[in-house]
Design goal:
There is one protein chain. This protein is an alpha+beta fold and 126 residues long. It contains three helices and four strands. It has a four-stranded mixed β-sheet with strand order 2-1-3-4, with helices on both faces.
Length: 126
């Protein structure tokens, strides 16, 4: 158990520092060994009525034997729903910007929640 906790804590700190503005996505590079591990990103919000099923599905992955070897799941709470009156305490403008960059680079079809990105490309297979 301690072996999983330490990498998870390090990963959480690194991702958290991205949202806090301490680091930018351009300054941090994660590189897998021979076989790359995909980042599975969920763009979500507490103000999104369609997000709870996606959040629940992402939570089921904690028991998937491919976890950490084939994919690393991350939930990014976006802040663009906040203007509708439901303030998401986990939201960050940096996460919204991250999703917007995917769209600007034509890697996703739009900025929406719930939105999944797998290995840098839009994914709807959840």
């Amino acid at each position: 158990m301690a072996r999983l906790t330490q990498p998870l804590t390090l990963f959480t700190l690194l991702i958290g520092s991205l949202g806090a503005g301490m680091l930018s996505a351009n300054e941090v590079t994660f590189q897998s060994e021979a076989k790359q591990t995909a980042l599975l990103e969920l763009f979500t919000s507490e103000g999104c009525s369609s997000c709870p099923p996606a959040d629940a599905w992402l939570s089921t992955l904690q028991h998937d034997p491919r976890l950490w070897r084939d994919f690393i799941p991350v939930a990014f709470h976006v802040d663009y729903w906040d203007r509708l009156g439901w303030k998401d305490t986990l939201a960050s403008p940096a996460y919204s910007h991250r999703q917007q960059v995917y769209q600007q680079q034509k890697l996703t079809s739009g900025v929406y929640t719930p939105g999944f990105v797998l290995a840098g490309e839009e994914w709807r297979g959840w």
